[in-house]
Amino acid sequence: MPPAPSSRPGEPVALLTMTPVRVASIGTGRWAGTLSDAAKPGLTVVACTSRSADRRAAFARKYGCRDVPTFEAVLADGDVEGVLITTPHSLHAEQAVAAARAGKHVFVDKPFALSVADARRMTETCRQAGVVLAVGHQRRRQAASRAIKRLLDEGALGRISQIEGNFSADYGFSSTITADMWRGDRTETPGGPMTNLGIHHVDTFQYLLGPIARVMAFSRRVVLDIDVEDVTAILFEFASGVLGYLGTSWVPANRTEWLFLHGTEAQVWHEGFGARLSLMRRGQSERTPVPLTQVDPIAEELADFARCVREGGRPEVGGEEGTQNIAVLEAIVESATTGRAANVAGR
User: Fold this and answer.
1) In terms of pTM, does the model score above 0.85?
2) Does residue 148 lie in a domain region?
3) Domain span including residue 78
4) From the CB of residue 282, how many other CB atoms can be counted at a distance below 10 Å?
C-alpha cells in the first residue's frame, strides 16, 4: 500500500513553518517562472538549468538562484534536494528517472510522460529511490473543482449521467505553437492540444468521476500550417458507466476552460477558469451561483509537494494518478489513429 496522502484531497495544504525544500528548476521557460513565483514558502529555488545560456542567466538573476550549465551538474549538487521539471515533454521520463537515482525529489509538470511504459518506469524508480514524486495537475484544486467534488460526495447532484468540457487556448495565433518550436513537433504533442491542454481536464474528470475505461477520439489539423493536429474531440466511457465529452483546441478565438456535470437531481457549471460555479436543481429554470473560497491551485500543489518531502506522505497527484492520465492520453492517440474506440490500459 502506498503511504497516505499528506492531506485529505480537497483540503488546502497548510503552509507549515518548516525549512523550505531546496529545489532546482529544470527548464527556464514561462511555466518554470510560474512555478517559481508560487514556490514560497515551502520551496526555495536555489538553482536553474536549461539549454539556453541567456535564458538561464536571466532566470537566475530574476529568482536569485545559481545558473547551472547542465542537468548533470544539478544532479551532482548536494545542496539541491529536489527538481521542478518543465522541459519538453519527451525529456520528462529520463530526467525524472535520473533525478530519482541521484536522490532528488521530483515534481514533473504535465504531461507526466508520453507513454504508459515511461510513466510506470518513473513511478517505480522514484518508489525504489524513496523520493517524493508529484505531477503538476493543479486544476483539480481549483475552487470550483473542489466544490463539485463535495457536492458529488454529498450526493447532492443525484446520479451522474454525463460530463462535458472544453479546454482550449489561442496558442495557434501566438508564438507558443509554431512549426519551428518543440510544441510544433508531433512527437512532443501526440493528440495535438490534448497533450498540453486537454490532459488537465482528463485529470479533473477522473478526480471527480473515477477511471475512464474507453475512448473514441478524432484529431484533425483544421487551421494551422504545421504537422500537428490543432483540434481534438473525444468521447469517454467511464468504468462507472458515465459518459463524457471533451474538446480541446489551439485555434479558438479566445481561451476556453469549462466543464459541466449532469446529474439526476442537479446540474453544475464550472466556469471562469475554476473561479465560478453555478448549480440548477431539478425543476428550476435558472442557475444559482455557488459561493466559493478562492485558492491558488499552483501554490497548493507545490505546498503539498514540499510537505511530503519534509513530513512524509504521498502527494495528491503522484505517479499512480499521473500514469492513469497518460493511459487515457495513449488510448486517445490510438483511437484517433485507427478510427476505432480504444480501451484505456489497465481497464
Assistant:
1) yes
2) no
3) 21-138+298-316
4) 11
